[in-house]
Amino acid sequence: LDGAYAFNTGNASTSGPSEVLCNVNGSNQITNDVWYQYFPVGCSGTATASVCGASFNTRIAVYTDCPEYGGTIIACNDDFCGTGSSVSFPASEGNFYVIRVGGYNGATGTGTLTVGCSGASPCPADIAPPGGNGQVNIDDLTQIILNWGTNDANADINDDGNVNIDDLTAVILGWGPC
Questions:
Q1: Whole-angstrom Cα distance, residue 34 to residue 56?
Q2: For burial by CB atoms within 10 Å, which of 63, 120, 123, 174 has the most?
């Protein structure tokens, strides 16, 4: 999910493969890596994963799945923001991505991985079940009613921090097939 996640690579080992796409100064390896799964809920567009501001010289890569299960690297970066790293990649709701955060040439330290997606879902009011079912209908309306007045991230269609009349209106205006 979109958000900010603190990490520490101080005790991490190098568990992923060398990546030609990550070649900087003759080095293809991301060392002392930690891994995250990312699900772009409610978004098909451009996702960004960033560790800018980390306390060490970072590298970051994104895969379509874990490399050991046949995942393919789709983005890699070293030193986008000083010695911090940031990548943007195409993301589709319903898919998941694996984000690998580590160091350059054995560097370790702490930081925060920030992940987010920009781009509208083709049918933002299709919230039931989470991830949608291809149409806005009574299931989506029920989710709004059941979560009324809460900050439920799935039912808060307009992301204003509260499930309210604006979210109900989005369901009514979006009624029908996506």
A1: 14
A2: 63
- Give the C-alpha separation, 1 to 144, whole Å: 20
Contact 17, 28 (CB under 8 A): no
- Single-letter amino acid, residue 84: G
Tokens 């991490």, residue? 12
141-169: pLDDT as tens digits: 999 999 999 998 888 887 788 999 988 98
Give the count of beta carbons closer than 10 Å to the beta carbon of residue 73.
18
> C-alpha dihedral over 148, 154, 160, 166, to 10 degrees?
-50
Q: What is the DSSP letter of 133?
A: -
Burial-class residue 135 by CB neighbours within 10 Å (0-12, 13-18, 19+). middle
Question: Which tokens belong to 49?
Answer: 């994963």
